Q: What sequence folds into this?
């Protein structure tokens, strides 16, 4: 179990990483960590996330009200609190403005190509949440259509939000989102993108299950057999168990037909 100091220090370390990686400019971005049902630590407003010290980290309650700390929480903490309300499996939220992912959010283009196994395993696809005025409830509300099926979200004309069972996981998801965006952009420039077929996706989903990767996953958004019993990749994972059933049904059906034909 981490001490309070270690938690605060880790928030500062991740803040420094997102700043060094260019995922946030100036004082942008915010990070939070859940330590109890009504206890959270978060980054302060008006401070660069690259230059934080543990004494700057604030303790807040589930409504985002300050319990402890000399600085004030970000007005964008509302979206973090909404995530914790809706997703009991989440213990950390990272919000940043990574430039290439944010450019996709500006162009209203979700990250929806199945091109990289790592990205498929981590986030699958990344949807775009409707534009909302910062600091209002519009942004938390905009997450709602996607919150139960995704761990990463693009915020229209704004940036990205990622979640995880740990702070490191939430940060790695953010890192993966920007990398996914970068490769999507470069590949589009080169031309001739070849996606990993749905038949291969089911293998990755099985792998995801075996690796016991925590969090939500949207499944394949493009499967030709989506919403039919033939679907091998099934949305809303971890429901990979639904896939073998589908193929078993198919085998049973074929066997039945073959047997029927032989008996004629
Ligand atoms: Zn922001």
A:
């Amino acid at each position: 179990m981490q001490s309070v100091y270690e938690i605060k220090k880790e928030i500062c370390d991740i803040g420094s990483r997102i700043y060094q990686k260019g995922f946030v400019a100036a004082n942008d971005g915010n990070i939070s960590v859940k330590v109890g049902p009504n206890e959270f630590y978060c980054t302060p407003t008006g401070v660069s996330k690259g230059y934080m010290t543990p004494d700057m980290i604030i303790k807040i309650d589930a409504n985002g009200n300050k319990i402890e700390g000399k600085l004030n929480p970000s007005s964008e903490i509302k979206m973090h609190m909404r995530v914790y309300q809706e997703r009991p499996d989440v213990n950390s939220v990272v919000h940043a403005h990574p430039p290439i992912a944010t450019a996709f959010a500006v162009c209203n283009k979700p990250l929806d190509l199945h091109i990289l196994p790592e990205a498929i395993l981590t986030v699958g696809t990344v949807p775009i949440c409707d534009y909302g005025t910062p600091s209002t409830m519009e942004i938390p509300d905009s997450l709602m259509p996607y919150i139960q099926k995704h761990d990463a979200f693009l915020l229209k004309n704004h940036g990205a939000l990622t979640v995880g069972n740990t702070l490191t996981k939430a940060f790695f998801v953010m890192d993966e989102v920007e990398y996914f965006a970068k490769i999507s952009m470069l590949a589009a420039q080169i031309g001739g993108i070849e996606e990993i077929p749905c038949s291969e996706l089911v293998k990755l989903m099985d792998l995801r299950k075996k690796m016991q990767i925590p969090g939500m996953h949207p499944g394949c958004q493009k499967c030709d057999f989506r919403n039919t019993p033939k679907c091998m990749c099934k949305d809303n994972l971890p429901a990979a168990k639904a896939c073998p059933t589908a193929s078993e049904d198919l085998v049973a059906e074929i066997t039945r037909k073959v047997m029927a034909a032989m008996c004629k």
